[in-house]
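Tokens for chain A. Residues wanted.
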């Protein structure tokens, strides 16, 4: 039965609408719009906050005891969102106001130009729908001086997804939730070590770039928070069948370029996996922004021919002065990071302990 449901996805969103639309309408609420906000980011002088306005539906976050079928139904509800276009949106950050109107797909983008610079830290913006008296708050990451930034993929880099195996990936995404999906061993402590930097007291920003759809934003955010992986802005995309199938497009490279241009004086550490095209994307990013990539870590989740391809690519990057490490786990990445001065010497034992603890609880990955 699961495979029959998975095959229904081949028709894309239109096919899901046709198959599940009547059931979804039964779960929709009549009432005010559902305001969704996504973690903002920017500099002390300029900040961007994105979000979406949808029709409401009855929906509760997942629990560890939820059945696969309940998880599947919640994913269907997420993917079959009903967008509201032309809705005015007003945002406030400190004393600065920004305005926008939702697009055809319900998205909006608020751009704040700050007359007085903000300190480099986490801030909170307020977002309202004045025509509907709806409002919400959203975290904003303001980045100033830092040792470096971290740009990370999510699937098969932070979250065990098996994205290079289509049907196994779909089964993981569709039939699990934020409390049942698992991180790779020690990944949270590794990212905390990188965020703290070489002296252990830094505040380096972490950004997550993924081809996952914005519909899954809440699930991913709760996963990161639950698994104690450093929070940071998520750069996702609108969904279609190609999104679910994990096919390559320009989204990741454009998102990385956005980070590089937003923070022109900040070098970056790039983290991904060998399952899809992260190594090739990161190579292109390093070439477009020479001298800006401190290191590239690629989690080896494939082996065989794909491993050979990544090793060849590593040689090309080394000739250009960029260090790409193909690593089996978080501990190997941490060992290299310590040896090259990206993390504090005292961070390695913490990563080692976290890897051992996670493996004991959830298996060797």
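Reply:
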């Amino acid at each position: 039965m699961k495979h029959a449901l998975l095959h229904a996805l081949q028709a894309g969103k239109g096919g899901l609408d046709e198959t599940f639309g009547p059931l979804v309408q039964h779960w929709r609420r009549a009432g005010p719009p559902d305001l969704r906000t996504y973690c903002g980011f920017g500099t002390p002088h300029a900040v961007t906050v994105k979000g979406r306005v949808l029709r409401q539906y009855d929906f509760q976050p997942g629990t560890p005891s939820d059945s696969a079928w309940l998880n599947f139904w919640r994913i269907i509800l997420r993917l079959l969102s009903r967008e509201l276009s032309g809705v005015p949106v007003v945002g406030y950050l400190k004393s600065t106001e920004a305005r926008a109107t939702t697009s055809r797909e319900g998205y909006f983008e608020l751009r704040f130009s700050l007359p007085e610079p903000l300190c480099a830290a986490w801030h909170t913006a307020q977002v309202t729908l004045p025509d509907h008296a709806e409002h919400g708050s959203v975290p904003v990451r303001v980045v100033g001086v830092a040792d470096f930034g971290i740009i990370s993929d999510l699937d098969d880099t932070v979250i065990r997804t098996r994205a290079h195996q289509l049907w196994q990936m779909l089964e993981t995404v569709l039939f699990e939730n934020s409390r049942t999906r698992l991180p790779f061993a020690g990944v949270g402590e590794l990212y905390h070590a990188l965020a703290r930097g070489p002296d252990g007291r830094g505040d380096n920003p972490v950004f997550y770039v993924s081809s996952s759809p914005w519909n899954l934003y809440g699930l991913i955010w709760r996963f990161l928070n639950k698994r104690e992986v450093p929070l940071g802005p998520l750069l996702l995309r609108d969904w279609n069948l190609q999104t679910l199938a994990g096919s390559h497009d320009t989204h990741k490279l454009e998102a990385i370029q956005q980070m590089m241009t937003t923070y022109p004086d900040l070098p970056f550490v790039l983290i991904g996996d060998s399952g899809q095209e992260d190594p090739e994307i990161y190579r292109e990013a390093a070439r477009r922004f020479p001298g800006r990539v401190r290191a590239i870590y690629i989690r080896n989740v494939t082996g065989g021919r794909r491993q050979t391809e990544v090793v060849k690519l590593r040689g090309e990057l080394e000739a250009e002065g960029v260090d790409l490490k193909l690593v089996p786990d978080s501990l190997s990445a941490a060992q290299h990071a310590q040896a090259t001065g990206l993390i504090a010497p005292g961070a390695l034992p913490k990563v080692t302990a976290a890897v051992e603890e996670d493996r004991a609880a959830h298996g060797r990955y």
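Residues 1-28, 163-178, 242-247 have pLDDT under 50 and may be disordered. The first strand starts at residue 34 and ends at 42.
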